[in-house]
């Protein structure tokens, strides 16, 4: 069995390089989104945990079990993560879509 040797056209080579470039840019965009989302989740956890735990300790009408407290805190952290990560990925993709391929 012989292997077929097919000459690549310049258009095919450019499209493969362009695909690699697009994949690298997508990876970078998603990494920026993950980092920004993690920062927002950490901030939301602290911002939600302090008043939730304080109100459960001090106010008699706000008494709740630890599971409810954890649910409130984790819901806020999860929402913050996904909202900020999504907005960051979209903003980065929008910013990169206006760049010409030769400027990267």
Automatic annotation (TrEMBL):
Pfam families: ENOD93. The keyword Glycoprotein does not apply. The chain crosses the membrane at residues 34-54, 66-85. Keywords: Membrane, Transmembrane, Transmembrane helix. It comes from the Eukaryota. This is EARLY NODULIN-93. It comes from Salix koriyanagi.
């Amino acid at each position: 069995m012989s292997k077929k040797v097919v000459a690549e056209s310049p258009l095919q080579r450019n499209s493969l390089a362009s695909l690699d470039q697009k994949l690298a840019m997508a990876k970078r965009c998603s990494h920026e989104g993950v980092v920004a989302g993690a920062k927002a989740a950490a901030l939301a956890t602290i911002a939600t945990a302090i008043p939730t735990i304080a109100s459960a300790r001090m106010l008699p009408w706000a008494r709740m079990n630890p599971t409810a407290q954890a649910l409130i805190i984790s819901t806020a952290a999860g929402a913050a993560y996904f909202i900020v990560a999504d907005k960051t990925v979209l903003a980065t993709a929008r910013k990169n879509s206006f760049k010409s391929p030769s400027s990267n």
